[in-house]
Specification:
By secondary structure, this protein is mainly α. The chain has one domain. The radius of gyration is 17 Å and the shape is globular.
């Protein structure tokens, strides 16, 4: 019952459209601005980088909090069934962000919330998440496409996880295989949500960061 409550709570928290709320406070509707997305990247177009960073942190937090709360219910060495339940809580938060119940199930891309989930799934996802964030930063600074950096980082995450499991002495593939499945499924969800961005990148119409336009 506790896990059921956590799963429902994770979805409802993930559904909170912080970007849309912040923009509404300034009399703007993100759905009618730029890409129409309600996440931090589009918020930067409407209100500037300061509010975009704040929104990003809030979206990360709504992924991380349910994972940390779930951690308190797990054993010191989580069993495979516990790992599955932990992951279901995280996926519920992502689905909440992508398909928020409060705004007719039309949400964001799920990148920041996924990052929060990775940080909260300590320590198995936290270490790969740090590597992934470094990859995201490099691609964002060089190519200046937030969407491209997010997709590349999504691909890098399962690779970083496999490397960590191979290198850590007390981490075994046989015990952590549910994490590997989720590490593939979640990035696929993120990439699918970036379909329109991929089309714009190919067409050369995707917005870049640090661009005056």
């Amino acid at each position: 019952m506790k896990f059921v409550i956590l799963i429902i709570g994770a979805y409802l928290l993930g559904s909170v459209p912080f970007g849309l709320i912040i923009a509404k406070a300034y009399g703007k509707d993100l759905r009618n601005i730029g890409s129409g997305n309600i996440g931090a990247t589009n918020l930067s177009r409407a209100l500037g980088k300061k509010w975009a960073y704040f929104c990003f942190l809030l979206d990360v937090t709504k992924g991380m909090v349910p994972m940390l709360l779930t951690l308190k219910l797990l054993s010191a060495q989580p069993t495979i069934s516990e790992l599955f339940l932990w992951l279901i809580v995280g996926i519920a938060a992502i689905l909440g962000h992508i398909f928020p119940i409060y705004v007719k199930f039309k949400g964001g891309k799920g990148v920041a919330t996924s990052f929060g989930i990775a940080l909260g799934l300590w320590p198995y996802y936290t270490i790969p998440a740090a590597v992934t964030f470094a990859v995201w930063t490099v691609f964002a600074l060089i190519w200046r496409y937030i969407s491209l950096a997010s997709m590349v980082a999504s691909v890098a995450f399962p690779i970083a996880l496999v490397s960590a499991i191979a290198l850590k002495e007390n981490w075994e593939f046989a015990n952590l295989w549910p994490l590997l499945i989720a590490a593939i499924v979640i990035p696929l969800m993120v990439i699918i949500r970036h379909t329109e961005n991929i089309k714009r990148i190919i067409a050369g119409t995707e917005d870049k960061i640090f661009s005056k336009s």
